[in-house]
Write a structure and sequence with these properties.
This protein is mainly beta and 323 residues long. The protein has 1 helix and 21 strands.
């Protein structure tokens, strides 16, 4: 009886083992992970190209998911104009995974600065430089020498004293009050920081010199626009509390002919898209709404001036993630 029980026990154990092995074989067949994987389910999955088949597809568990929001989803396009009001969109993407463009034409080269999110875990400030008016670009990482720029975003370039002056939010997402910083460069890639010119919870600086008023003007995104002024682009700017603009934000101001046009993202009822106002006597007056409206448009307009009646705008679009 004892031997019979032992035999019966061995048979049952063998059946259990075979069932487990068979079950594992079915599991491996279903998941497609079979072979010699030793570290657990999914380790030998192909990684593919991030985002190629949607957020998280074909990515090992240890790799962060592709972002479903933020600059990684942004693309930069351009448009042309002969008067600064009427624009024709060029339907060719200029930069992918790129956000918040800032453009300037300097010494026969076009510079387009942007937040480069191609490596979404290590976003950085980059510049595309073109010698053929934007037909082709070479891209470089922007280098800033200074202590107030650990994470520079929202670039705003202008030409001043035969240099490119770049103004930006220097400490984005650093757990402290925002610092608007300005720096200068002769090659458009390597910058020397001049210092902090404004400190507040603001974004998207728009710096320009008002020749009529004889002062430097800084427009800032606060949901609408806040204005600050100074006698020098490197001085500490003082807020003009009498200024109020709630029709839009994220502006870029350029002198076109004899007028200062402020391009901005419209938020007023019925506006939307890119709008334009004229800056004069220290105030803004709306000129036209929806001068640019493009699929996925997320604004951030900026204009490069090649010459009289020869302008190119850069703006960003944002892809809509499907749930």
């Amino acid at each position: 009886m004892k031997d019979a029980e032992g035999i019966a026990t061995s048979v049952i154990a063998l059946i259990v083992v075979l069932a487990v092995v068979a079950g594992a074989g079915i599991y491996l067949l279903v998941t497609g992970t079979g072979g010699t994987s030793q570290g657990g389910v999914g380790e030998n999955e192909p990684t593919g190209t991030p985002g190629e088949n949607g957020a998280g597809d074909n990515k090992p568990p240890s790799t962060p998911e592709v972002p479903t929001s933020g600059p990684y989803l942004d693309k930069i396009y351009s448009a042309t104009s002969s008067n600064g009001i009427n624009w024709v969109v060029d339907n060719t993407m200029v930069f992918n995974h790129a956000s918040v463009p800032g453009a300037v034409y300097f010494e026969n080269k076009l510079y387009v600065y942007f937040v480069n999110a191609a490596d979404w875990e290590n976003e950085k400030l980059s510049v595309g430089i073109s010698t053929d008016r934007g037909a082709t670009f070479t891209t470089h990482d922007v280098q800033i020498s200074g202590s107030n720029s650990p994470y520079p975003v929202d670039p705003n370039p202008i030409v001043q004293d035969n240099k490119i002056r770049l103004t930006y939010l220097g400490n984005f997402n650093q757990g402290e009050t925002g610092k608007i910083v300005t720096a200068n460069s002769t090659d458009g890639i390597n910058f020397t920081e001049d210092g902090v010119i404004f400190t507040a919870d603001v974004y998207d600086p728009d710096l320009f010199y008002d020749e009529v008023g004889g002062e430097w003007v800084l427009l800032l995104n606060t949901g609408g626009l806040t204005k600050a002024t100074a006698s020098s682009p490197t001085a500490t700017f003082t807020e003009d509390t009498s200024f109020n603009w709630s029709e839009g934000s994220i502006s870029s101001t350029h002198k076109i002919e004899d007028k200062y046009y402020t391009y901005y993202a419209g938020t007023a009822a019925g506006a939307g898209g890119v709008c334009v106002a004229e800056y004069s006597n220290g105030a803004l007056t709306n000129v036209a709404n929806r001068i640019l409206n493009y699929q996925g448009l997320n604004a951030d307009p900026t204009v490069a001036i090649f010459g009289t009646n020869d302008y190119k705008m850069y703006f960003k679009t944002r892809a809509v993630q499907q749930g």
